[in-house]
Specification:
This protein is α/β, with parallel strands linked by helices. Helix content is about 30%, strand content about 25%. The strands form four sheets. The chain has an eight-stranded mixed β-sheet with strand order 5-6-4-13-14-15-12-16. Helix 1 runs parallel beside helix 5, helix 3 packs across helix 5 (about 135-150) and helix 3 (about 65-85) crosses helix 8 (about 320-335).
């Protein structure tokens, strides 16, 4: 039986996990990344994110978002363990809990937790969700890159594809041209390129409602005053990492593909961070960076076959929760591509 050849377009966490699932399905897999997998310039929101494995205020989202996120988060403990055993790279999985400061809709929040069997505790500061975990995204990407290579996935890095130009119903995609003029061929293609997905597919009949949304984040050195949990308040969070450093973020900025950081946002993030943890006023900021999330209405990704190109699939548009949703969305799209009856 001929082995199916599949090209995965995009080397963020969603793309890497999709590629590994395709290998498990017995496919010959090539992953195409416009930069370098696991570098700061690849994966965008994958590399730049804070690593929280839970939706912020899930009772504010649709059930479909929470279902995918919770399903994905449940996969991470064994996934990180397998990656560590296989590659020797620690993804820094940590159950840190999340403290939500004085939520205004406490009854709605606790009702949701009870309905979805999510542990919670009332305390003087608000609502604690003790089971919320985190990983360190750059470490996870390093582990995934090594696992891809060990599993026989071909990496085509620094390879950018041209936007598709197929508008005929029931068209079949046999090849895809790179910017450099190379022709890539496969039996199936799956787009996992986050914020760039719209640009790649804008000339097809698929109307993807995806746009880049910039998020800026700060990294503080270790503080004398330690946080026991992730702290969330009014759209802002502090994340105490496993290495002792502290993340503060993040913004949601509709500025196109502009990845620049700004002094105004830095000051805004500092003010919010110091209002939660006053000792940060005397703590050095080690880094300030940004990433581009694939913004979509209601945070709902597209995990489906392309409606008019019969061997093209989409696993993209995860917005704020690509990291959390990635393991579950990879399983779902690969089940569809491989005609599995498991899901």
């Amino acid at each position: 039986m001929q082995v199916k050849k599949v090209i995965v377009v995009g080397g963020g966490i969603v793309g890497c996990l999709t590629a590994l699932e395709l290998i498990e399905c017995g496919c010959n897999v090539t992953l195409v990344e416009r930069n370098v997998v696991a570098s700061q310039t690849s994966g965008e929101s994958s590399w730049a994110g804070a690593g929280i494995l839970f939706p912020l205020l899930p009772w504010m989202y649709k059930d479909a978002v929470n279902q995918l996120a919770i399903e994905g988060a449940a996969i991470y403990p064994k996934l990180c363990e397998r990656l560590l055993t296989k590659t020797g790279v620690d993804s820094e999985y940590l159950i840190s809990g999340m403290q939500i400061l004085t939520p205004s809709n406490i009854k709605e929040a606790t009702d949701w937790c009870e309905k979805n069997s999510v542990a919670y505790q009332h305390n003087a500061e608000g609502l604690l969700l003790p089971a919320v975990a985190q990983v360190r995204p750059p470490q996870l990407l390093k582990a995934l890159r090594q696992a891809l290579l060990q599993s026989g996935v071909t990496l085509l890095e620094r390879t950018e594809l041209r936007p598709l130009n197929l508008e005929i119903d029931n068209a079949e995609l046999n090849s895809w041209q790179t910017i450099a003029g190379e022709t890539l061929t496969a039996d199936q293609f799956v787009v996992t390129s986050g914020a760039w997905s719209f640009e790649l597919l804008k000339n097809t009949t698929q109307n993807l409602d995806i746009k880049p949304m910039r998020g800026q984040i700060l990294l503080y050195e270790q503080t004398a005053e330690k946080l026991e949990h992730i702290v969330y308040a009014n759209g802002f969070y502090l994340v105490p990492r496993k290495d002792g450093l502290l993340l503060a973020g993040s913004t949601l900025e509709d500025v196109g593909f502009n990845k620049n950081t700004t002094e105004a946002v830095k000051q805004e993030l500092q003010t919010k961070a110091e209002s939660i943890l006053p000792s940060l006023k005397n703590t050095n900021i080690l880094k300030h960076w940004s990433g581009l999330r694939p913004g979509t209405p209601d945070n709902l990704p597209t995990i489906a076959a392309h409606p008019t190109i019969k061997n093209l699939f989409l696993n993209t548009g995860h917005f704020r929760y690509g990291l959390t949703m990635a393991p579950a969305s990879a399983k779902r799209i690969v089940a569809l591509m491989c005609d599995s009856t498991q899901y």
